[in-house]
Automatic annotation (TrEMBL):
Protein name: Phospholipase/carboxylesterase
Entry-linked SUPFAM superfamilies: alpha/beta-Hydrolases
Native source organism of the sequence: Tepidamorphus gemmatus
GO MF, any single term: hydrolase activity
Matching InterPro entries: AB_hydrolase_fold, Dienelactn_hydro
Dienelactone hydrolase domain span: 92-189
Domain of life: Bacteria
Amino acid sequence: MPVSSDFGFRHAFESGGAPALLLLHGTGGDETDLVPLARHVAPGSAILSPRGNVSENGLPRFFRRFAEGVFDLEDVARRADELAAFIADATAAYDLSKPVAIGFSNGANIAAAMMLRHPQALAGAALIRAQPTLTPGTLPDLGGVPVLMLAGERDPIVSAYDCSGLAATLEAAGAEVRLETLPAGHSLTQLDVDILKDWLARLTLV
């Protein structure tokens, strides 16, 4: 898969059909991590997969944090803006439709933050083990944007309560949210994969 450092992010790109998928890895991942998952759940889709620009002791992330679950909110906002600009530039250059994000953990959190600051950036999002970061004073209009949230009932990092809080915020902004709490921890499971594949197959984009 070709890799480029254009548009402000080192990223992998693979051409294909719709929906185009934006892959956002978790802490310590890179642009290759979620590619096999994407090929499995939506074979033939175009893939755009950036590596987070923040390094935490050498581990790539999409924004800084002070401790587990304690985020640098100014950095979250700035990095969300950077990612939205990357998506706009990359989709234009690669002639892609507005992408659907698949984000895991830190990648899911930056996707959610970006949706709340740039509601036109994504056609939809699958947020796996996501939690709230930014909560704007005035909610954007996410009317009709499909969002799948997959939480783990035994997740030691992201509580089901946090996932529900983020789901409520996105719903209040008008997103069509489906929240599933799975018998799982923080790691991706086969059940996550099966639900994600089914959700993508049934996806109707606005």
